[in-house]
Amino acid sequence: MSAPQSKIALITGGSRGLGKDMALRLAEKGLDVIITYNNSAEEAAKVAELIQQQGRKAAALQLNTGDIRSFSSFTEELKKILTDVFDNDHFDFLINNAGIGGYQLIGEVTEDFFDELYNIHFKGVYFLTQELIPVLNDGGGIVNVSSGLTRITFPRSSAYAAMKGAIEVFTRYVAKEFGSRGIRANTIAPGAIMTDFGNAHLRNSEDSRKMVSSVTALGRPGVAEDIGGVVAFLCSEDARWVNGQRIEISGGMQL
Known about the structure:
The chain is of the alpha/beta class. It has helices at 17-28, 41-53, 71-86, 111-132, 158-177, 197-200, 206-214, 228-234, and strands at residues 8-11, 32-37, 58-62, 91-96, 136-145, 184-190, 246-249. The protein has one domain (8-249): Rossmann fold, CATH 3.40.50. Strands 3-2-1-4-5-6-7 form a seven-stranded parallel β-sheet, sandwiched between helices.
C-alpha cells in the first residue's frame, strides 16, 4: 500500500522575512512547499534548499503579484512544476503573503503610489486567488496576510491599511463561496515585525522599537519567527474548524 501524498503549500513572497519563516515552519509540519519570489532568485533557491534538507519537496517560481496579466502563464508553469517535481496536479494551501511597504500621509499619496499598493496588496491577491482556486484541492485552505494596521491607526499607513482591510472582507467572502468544497479561508494580521519589510524601518529605528514595545503587552516588537507557526497551524488538520477568521499576531498591541 502506497503512502499518502504530502500536502503542498504555495507561498507568495517566500524568499525572505515572514514568507521564509512560513515556508520553513510548514516544512517542519511535513508539508511540501512552493515559494514565489519577485527579484530574489538566489535567496529563494536557498529557502528551497533548506526545505529539502528537512526531507520535503520544494520549488521556487518567479512571480510579480502586482502584474495580473502574468497570472495565466504563472499558473501554467505551476501546473508543470506540480507534475514534474511533486507528482501531482493540484496543491492544498495558498498563502497570499507577498507585499511591499508604503507609508505616506494622506495629503502626500499620489495615484501611482496608491495604484502600486492596490495592485500588489488587493487586486493581485484577488485575481491570483481566482486564477488558482481551480488548482486547489477540495478540503484545502487559503491564508491571506493582512496587518494589525486595520485595527490600529498609525499616520502614513492609510493606503496600505485600506488595502489590507479590503483583504479581510475578501477573505470572508472566499470562505463563504468555497465552503461547499471544504476550502477554508482565514486572515492573519501581524503587528509590528522586525524584518526588512518597508526598508526595515522598524528594525533600523531604536525610537520606533521603543514605541512599539511600550504599547505591546508582551513588551517587544515581533520577529518573523513569531508568525510562521500560526500559518502552519492554519494549514493543518488541527485548524479544520477555523474559517473566515482574522487572527491578529501582535503580542497584544494597543489592548
